């Protein structure tokens, strides 16, 4: 199954935004590539790094966190605002969970302050007076399996008309608690409130993200081969052993 495909995954600020084991999303993407003979290189960009090298990025991931950590990360990412916007506009694959999701918009208003966003998505997040905490089940027409995870956020995220929600809420709260929708897909940006970690729980969504990156990077890429059942079960056990404590 060997091939010379290689995917570079940039994990932004896992030292600050890694709520509820969101780093498990990186392990899942890495493994699901390697199990198909595709090399995955993970570059972690932490608060100690003086600069972020996005040029080689095929997938960028940013996880969730508390308001305080979000403020720190946003001030760091605003230095790269134009480059990140150009990356997303040019079809770069960007996966953002919860706090990371909120930072992609115009602003994130917390109970105490207003954090300027990266302006990558036509969304904004207002502070809620309660936290939206629930298991979540979404219906997404891209997949025949529901998308599942859990949410814990005070922010209420409002999305612009030219953005497609990730899914219709069948159980849980979603973007605002009453819109009936959750998350956003815009070009190859997939943003959601769902922790879990998200991708090990939703292998079809993970493979969709990997295919977006591979198709964008390699003209001759003709799709990911499905994993056999044994490997799919092994994938679930690997994540459970490594990340579910
Ligand atoms: N789970 C998170 O990442 C939380 C995001 C943000 N701090 C909020 O409360 O809405």
Can you put this structure into words, describing what you see?
- By secondary structure, the chain is α/β, with parallel strands linked by helices.
- The chain has a single domain, classed as Rossmann fold (3-Layer(aba) Sandwich).
- The chain is built from seven helices and 14 strands.
- The protein has a six-stranded mixed beta sheet. It has a four-stranded antiparallel beta sheet with strand order 9-8-11-12, with no helix packed on it. It has a two-stranded antiparallel sheet with strand order 5-6.
- Helix 1 (24-34) packs antiparallel against helix 7.
- The longest helix is centred in the C-terminal third of the chain and has 15 residues, at 203-217.
- The radius of gyration is 17 Å and the shape is globular.
- The model has no long low-confidence stretch (mean pLDDT 93).
- The structure holds glutamine.
- Residues 19, 64-67, 70, 98-99, 152-155 line the site of glutamine.
- Forms a heterodimer with MurT.
- It comes from Monoglobus pectinilyticus.
- One of its GO terms (biological process) is peptidoglycan biosynthetic process.
- Belongs to the CobB/CobQ family. GatD subfamily.
- This is Lipid II isoglutaminyl synthase (glutamine-hydrolyzing) subunit GatD.
């Amino acid at each position: 199954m060997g091939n010379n495909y290689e995917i570079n995954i940039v994990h932004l600020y896992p030292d600050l935004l890694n709520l509820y084991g969101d780093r498990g999303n990186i392990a899942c993407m890495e493994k699901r590539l390697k199990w198909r003979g595709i090399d995955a290189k993970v570059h972690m960009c932490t608060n100690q790094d003086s600069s972020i090298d996005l040029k080689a990025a095929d997938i960028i991931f940013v996880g969730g966190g508390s308001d305080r950590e979000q403020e720190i990360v946003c001030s760091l990412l605003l230095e790269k605002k134009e480059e990140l916007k150009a990356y997303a506009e040019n079809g770069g694959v960007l996966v953002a969970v919860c706090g990371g999701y909120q930072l992609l918009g115009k602003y994130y208003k917390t109970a105490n302050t207003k954090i300027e966003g990266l302006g990558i998505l036509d969304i904004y997040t207002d502070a809620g007076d309660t936290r939206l905490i629930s298991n979540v089940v979404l219906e997404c027409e891209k997949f025949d399996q529901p998308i599942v995870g859990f949410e814990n956020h005070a922010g209420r995220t409002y999305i612009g008309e030219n953005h497609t929600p990730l899914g219709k809420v069948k159980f849980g709260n979603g973007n605002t608690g009453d819109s009936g929708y959750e998350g956003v897909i815009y070009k190859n940006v997939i943003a959601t409130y769902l922790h879990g970690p998200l991708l090990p729980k939703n292998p079809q969504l993970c493979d969709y993200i990997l295919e977006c990156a591979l198709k964008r990077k390699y003209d001759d890429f003709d799709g990911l081969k499905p994993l056999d059942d044994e490997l799919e079960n092994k994938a679930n056990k690997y994540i459970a052993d490594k990340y579910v404590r």
